Amino acid sequence: MAELSVNGQQVTLSDDPRTTLLDTLRELPGFTGTKKGCDHGQCGACTVLLDGRRVNACLILAVQCEGCEVTTIEGLGEGDQLHPLQQAFVRHDGFQCGYCTPGQICSAYAMLEEIANGEPSDVTDEDGVRLSRDEIRERMSGNLCRCGAYANIVDAILEAGQREESPS
Amino acid sequence: MKPFDYQRIGAVEEIDADAGERSSFLAGGTNLVDLMKHEIETPERLLDISRLELAQIEDGDQGGLRVGTLVTNTGLASDARVRERWPLLSSALLAGATAQLRNRATTGGNLLQRTRCYYFYDTARPCNKREPGEGCGALAGHNRIHAILGASEQCIATHPSDMAVAMVALDARVRLRAADGSQRELPVEELHRLPGDHPERDTVLQPGELILGVDLPAPPPGRHIYRKVRDRSSYAFALVSVGAILHVADGKVGSVRIAFGGVAHKPWRARKAEQALQGQAATEENFLKAADVELADARGYGGNDFKIPLARRTLVAVLRDAARATEESTP
Q1: In terms of CA atoms, which chain B residue is nearest residue A114?
Q2: Predicted ipTM?
Q3: How far does the CA of residue B283 sit from the closest CA of chain A (Å)?
Q4: Where is the 2Fe-2S ferredoxin-type domain (chain A) (predicted)?
């Protein structure tokens, strides 16, 4: 049977090749974090990490992910201990209804790694890749928030990113 | 989504010679899977090429670069060689889509993505590209995002890629493999076609023909600038974009390459403007003249009339910035 790994747990793939990675995750008992928003790669609510990189799970056929490692929002913290990004979102009130939040946090998690790797964005200038509000806004443009919590989302990511840069 | 057979390809030789009209190659899937959900694309068989050994970027001949078709948009934009020597390409890639999409979208798939014309996507509306003979809803409908150059009465859709605009300006070439195993090469400029009477054909690819990769020749001298004008500052397709590489020596245009995005059914290489500028003084007046020569045949359809002056102004602004930058770097 074809399998993929979700947060370290082996999952058997549906034998219907039309099944997306998102639908595979949604059907797993206990994995309610990853959300279906637009189902067309426009809103980012389904953002997960596929072999460590953020992707839209709604646009990927699960059968393509055989043998891959998927990390969802449930895989970021440790037990009841929230990941520092999750803590920062709570502290800064980086949401209202919360529907986009798992996608926002998975996206932000990968984004901070991309910055640490020195990967450029559309607003990166000749001075190189640095964490800033402009960089966060540009790099998070694939995650929409219909409640409009953007200002607090940027604050939360900035704080979590700065802590990562200089752990005290 | 319509049912289909799924087949994972382990080597290009496994692609059988009858891989044709009813099969589609699947790589990142960011556009194809979406179109299959809308039942705009309804392949009977998906040939998953995503695990082929075509994801490398290698140094090519004479200072060029060989890019495998499965190199992701993120991988290409972040490559140190591309950022240093082909910054036009890196900038164009980073101006497109989102990080999530760029992480998944591939080089070949980006070239073959389909138009985002509203009528193409809305199966309740007429579209000659989706259903030949149905008519074009955009012609007398909402056409704010549509073509001003090279369109036909059958289709006024635009090609949505930013990456392809840079590749056309850079004289990049695609390497192709036909279903019978034979190979050929084409300039990226000749890959996409104008709509004419067959807007259902975006490219000159034959059924079952696979893009193996893109070759970039050594870049021409000069300043690279990609400027994209869009309705939002991020994650939006271009209304008009300009990719240019300009080299100025002693106040005169030494060499210049220009391509437009968002204005035609294909990335639009502005050869008339290039010709008009060659050897001329790098002045605002000459930039305006060159833009006017290129846009002499431009035509609006009501909602997109604004694109003609927008294309003119964007080109002039890009050339002005590039000229200033090359003069500063060569005192």
Answers
A1: B99
A2: 0.97
A3: 26
A4: 1-76
